[in-house]
Structures are given as C-alpha cells and as structure tokens.
Amino acid sequence: MKKTVTSNRTAFAGIFSAIVASLCCIAPVLALLSGTTGIASTFSWVEPYRPILIGITVCILGFAWYQKLKPRSEDIDCACDDDKPKFIQSKTFLFLVTIFACTMLAFPYYSHMFYPNSNTGKQVVYVSESNVVELTYSVEGMTCTGCEAHIENEINKLEGILEVNANYETSKAFIKYDNSLVTADEIESAIRKTGYKLIE
Question: Of 50, 98, 153, 169, whose CB has the highest number of CB atoms within 10 Å?
Fold first, then answer.
C-alpha cells in the first residue's frame, strides 16, 4: 500500500515539474485566452532552467514507473493488498499522467497553434511605396514560437501593418507598415502591452 502512495505522489510531482518546465510558454496562451496579454512574459525567467526541470520530470516519472513495476515482495503487509487497486493507483493512471507530462513538456513546440493565424482575414492593401517603413526591434523575453505568435498577433491588431515576423531565437521582431496609418510609437506600445521588453 505504501508503494502505491509513493508512486502516486511521484506521479503528481512529475506533472507539477512538467508544467513548471513549460510555464514560460503556457503563460502567453493563458494570457491570450483570458484577455490579459500583459502577463505573457511573466514566467520567461523559467526558460534557462527548462532543461533542468525536464530532467527532474523524467527522473520523477521514471521513479514512479519503477515503483509501479517493481516486483512485489511475497510478504503481504495487510489484507487490503489483496483488493483491486483504485484507478488513481493503477498503471493506467500513471500512463495517463506520463502522457500529460510529455504533452506539457512539448508545449513550446505547438503553443503557436493557439494563436489566430496572423495572415488570415488580412485584406490586400495597395500602399504608396513612400509610406512603407520597415523596422526591426530587439525584444527581450521571447522563449518559444508561442511568444512569437503572441507578439505578431498583438501587432497585427493595428491598422496599417503589412508584415510582422518575430523570432525568439534572435530576439528580434521585424515589422513592415504603412506610416500613414500607424506610427512606430503605436507599434512599440503594442509590443510593450504583451509584457515583453523592448531593448533600446
């Protein structure tokens, strides 16, 4: 009985560490869904610790599986060991926990899917070439494709935006816009509204 309690605790610890490992990418999606986009970059400080947290998650879940699959001793501690284990103490539950933890660990790789496609619904606009301006901003706090999509989504809400490409690997955001419809200050304000910092 003690073994199942231990494996349950380690399973829940595995879920917790998996969620914390991807918190930097989960926060922007939660911010988008709740409409509070300014908190998106709150957990970007977790990103450097992500490999360590992934390792902790793997170790915890590995230990939980070891506890679950370890051969039982012949000694029966109490009569309750003969009972069929509850679902929460079963291998099926631990399997589901493992799948959930893996899904959370992989979240940064598919988080951009939660954002609307920035190119859909955009009308083709003819702009005088003299009004077209291209800017590149250095943005601090982007850690995954979800962060890129968050910034692109917010900037695309402005009228006059022709093209936006954010890249978390280079910490850059490239914007092409019509300066007769939108200003650089409005674009900078939109980036700051997401919670990410502009590097001067």
Answer: 153
